[in-house]
Amino acid sequence: MSTSVLVVGIGNDYRCDDRVGLLVARAVQARKGTHVRVLESDGNCTTLLEAWQETRMVILIDAICAGTTPGQIVRLDVHRQPLPSTYPFASSHALGLAETIELARTLQQLPPKCLIYGIAGKDFSSGETLSPEVSGAIPVVVEQVIREACSAS
Amino acid sequence: MRTTNILVDYLARVEGETAFSVKVRNKRVIEAHLNIFEPPRFFEAFLRGRSYHEAPDITARICGICPVAYQMSAVHALEQAFGVHVEGQLRALRRLIYCGEWIESHALHVYLLHAPDFLGYADAMRMARVHPDIVKRGLRIKKAGNALMAFLGGREIHPINVRVGGFYHVPAKKDFAPLLEQLSWGREAACETVRWVARLPFPEFTQEYEFVALRHPDEYPFNEGRLVSNQGLDIAVNEYEDHFLEEQVPYSHALHSRLKERGAYFVGPLARYNLNFERLSPLAQEVAREVGFGPVCRNPFQSIIVRSIEMVYAFDEALRLIEAYEPPEQPFVDLHPRAASGCACTEAPRGILYHRYQIDEQGLIREARIVPPTSQNQKTIEEDLRAYVEQHLDTPKAQLTWRCEQTIRNYDPCISCSTHFLQLHLEQQ
Fold first, then answer.
1. Nearest-CA residue of chain B relative to A100?
2. What's the CATH number where B72 sits?
3. What is the predicted pLDDT for the residue at B9?
4. Contacts of B266 (CB under 8 A, 6+ apart)
5. What is the pLDDT of residues B148-206, one digit of tens each?
6. Chain B closest CA to A11's CA: distance in Å?
7. A42, A50, A94 member nearest B15 (Cβ)
8. How many contacts, defined by CB atoms under 8 Å, are there between A and B?
9. Does B114 lie at the interface with A, CB-CB under 8 angstroms?
10. Percent above pLDDT 70 for chain A
11. Is there a domain that residue B282 lies in?
């Protein structure tokens, strides 16, 4: 399906702060324009590579565990900076988000514009409750994502 | 005493956390331990007190790569308990969803996890810089497997459409149409994969293994058959616990499985292939012969070839099943829970997966036992590491470490079913 902007929330609903990407995606879904497609993902490499084919812009939202202040928002423009292989996106999969991005870059399968919003988490244990700091970051990221998605239209 | 330490902090391209240590004295390996320190996950305890119908969905959560295997072993074990045998097109659909899992799991391992070992790349990203078309092919094959799983299972990971007795929903014949082109392409791409991996450089290495796999009278095994080995084992699955034992070892969180009478054994693609070659489809056999690969392989490094042949089979079998498909009258077989126990083994991509459940009169699970393939292969992995190190003591440390990692990856271990850290401690006198 070809749309100009794809927003992807990545995470696990049952690992506390790891679900923040999914919650941002759901909030964007409720307010998005017609040119924006929203996807929830567990970070599966092939699904992501497939999903962003033929899009002009992809915005990925994921929790990070960087040892920084919980709730801190990090915006990365993937075309301007390579992701370090050890970039601490929360993932227990064989190929995490950083590897997927670098693989796509190598295979020339990145969309022309690719942004990542990382939100620093604190608690990745089992459960559905977000840390207050992480929860507080959601409206900020939602506004930024919608603004960026609209600017691409 | 001269001591040499080789430390690898992070074993990439496997799932979970483990360390490996070997002690060498007088050019003899005196100890080789695979220390899995991934925390215990207590799934067997979670299952107690839950309804029987939750077992396939709870156990699927054990693994994101082989959830279908957990679902299949669970439903077969519970159906055995309730005296139900699922046949016809429902049985065929179970084989079909298993084809999807084998394809996605094998493609991931062959292309992204194992191939870089043979070509000298640290990871698939570096391999992709030099071989982009090969990596693209691998990703496309994996996608075809994922598509099949999503089609039948409702989603790619942790499918939600499998239930005890069958499925919640079954497709119409015409629903398969969008998959056919992808699967036909996949079958040819899998043949190309076999031709490609057969040319990789393999170290000479083998041991006297006891291969254990399911064997069915007519089919390459997924869900049913007797448990057989190349050393005379030939038992019904409900005799499993009479012949196999799990035991704790002081240095690992994972239980070690062994044959009571003979010790370590080998499960997975090599075991299936060696015990079932003639059950492969004519095309899969033909591709094996074309690359000069015989019906028996005892070199675990060549498991990448066998996985690729199994991918050919899985695509071929999927297309055959789809062609023969007629929708069943209802998506599941009615069943009546009763106080009983049942067990089953199915062939996960990594080897046999055993489940046993004790159910009470309300249909609640009183006891559950799950033996994943990786725990069954641990002793053999340790024996391979011991033998390989002993045969290559003069190999430079970095190269030996690389080979040790590769030796572990030969088994495509899924330590989350039961590993990301490898710490190789080589102590030499």
1. B125
2. 1.10.645.10
3. 42
4. B209, B210, B211, B212, B300, B377, B380
5. 999 999 877 788 899 999 999 999 999 999 999 999 999 999 999 999 999 999 999 99
6. 13
7. A94
8. 46
9. no
10. 88
11. yes
Determine the residue of chain A that is closest to B10 in CA distance: A86
- Interface confidence (ipTM) of the complex: 0.73
By Cβ distance, the residue of A92, A94, A107 closest to B132 is: A107
Q: Strand B234-235 to strand B244-247: parallel, antiparallel, or no bridges (unpaired)?
A: unpaired
- Residue carrying structure tokens 């920084």: A68
B181: exposed, middle or buried (C-beta count within 10 Å: 0-12, 13-18, 19+)?
exposed
The count of structural domains within chain A is: 1
Q: Does B124 touch chain A (CB under 8 A)?
A: yes
Between CA B366 and CA A151 the distance in angstroms is: 58
**Would you call A1 an interface residue with chain B, using a CB distance cutoff of 8 Å?**
no
What pTM was estimated for this model as a whole? 0.87
Nearest-by-CA chain A residue for B138: A46
Order across the sheet with B234-235: list the strands: B212-215, B226-229, B234-235
- Whether B417 is in a domain gets the answer yes
Query: Strand, helix or coil at A3?
Result: coil
For A54-67, the pLDDT digits (tens) are: 899 999 999 987 66
Question: Strands A57-64, A113-120: parallel, antiparallel or unpaired by DSSP?
Answer: parallel
Three-state DSSP class for residue A61? strand
Residue B301: inside a domain: yes
- Of A4, A1, A23, A2, residue with least CA distance to A12: A23
Backbone angles phi, psi at B313, to 5 degrees: -60, -45
CATH assignment of the domain containing A42: 3.40.50.1450
Please give the residue that has the higher pLDDT: either B399 or B2. Answer: B399
Looking at beta carbons, which residues of chain A come within 8 Å of B132? 106-108
Residue B292 to residue B83: CA distance in whole angstroms: 45
Q: Which residue range(s) make up the domain with B367?
A: 43-427
Q: Do A102 and B136 touch (CB under 8 A)?
A: no
B409 assigned to some structural domain:
yes
Phi, psi of B87 (to 5 degrees): -130, -175
Q: E strands, B114-198, where?
A: 162-163, 166-167
| B350 shares contact with chain A (CB less than 8 Å) | no
B125's tokens:
């990203």
A86 close contact with B: CB closer than 8 A: no
Residue A48 belongs to what domain range?
3-151
Radius of gyration of chain B (CA): 21
CA triple B208-B214-B216, angle to 5 deg: 130
- Give the H or E element holding residue B213: strand B212-215
Q: Is the dihedral of CA B349, B406, B41, B359 positive or negative?
A: positive
Contact between chains at B125 and A44 (C-beta distance less than 8 A): no
Q: What is the dihedral of CA B96, B98, B100, B105, to 10 degrees?
A: -170
Q: How far apart are CA B9 and CA B90, in angstroms?
A: 46
Residue B108 near chain A (CB below 8 Å): yes
Whether chain A has a CB inside 8 Å of the CB on B147: the answer is no
Number of folded domains that form chain B: 1
